[in-house]
Amino acid sequence: MQPALSLAYLLSQYPAINHAFMLREVRRLRELGFRIEVASVRAPDRPFDKLTPVEQEEAQAAFYIKTRGMGGVLRAHLATLFTRPAGYLRGLRCALGMGRSGILYFIEAVIAGQWMRRRQLTHMHCHYSSTVGLIAARIFPISLSITFHGQAEFVDPKGNRLAEKIGASLFCRAISLYGSGKMRKATDSQDWPKIEVTYLGVDPREFTPRPFRAAPDPFRIACVGQLAPVKGQQVLLAAIELLAREGRRVHLRIAGDGPERASLERDIARRGLAGHVALEGFLNQDKLRELYTATDVLALPSLAEGLPVVLMEAMAMEIPCIASRITGIPEIIEHETDGLLVAPGDPVALARAIARLIDDAGLRQRMGQRGRRKILDKFDLQRNTEYLAGVFRRRLELTAAM
Question: What is the dihedral of CA 180, 344, 256, 207, to 10 degrees?
Answer without folding.
Answer: -60
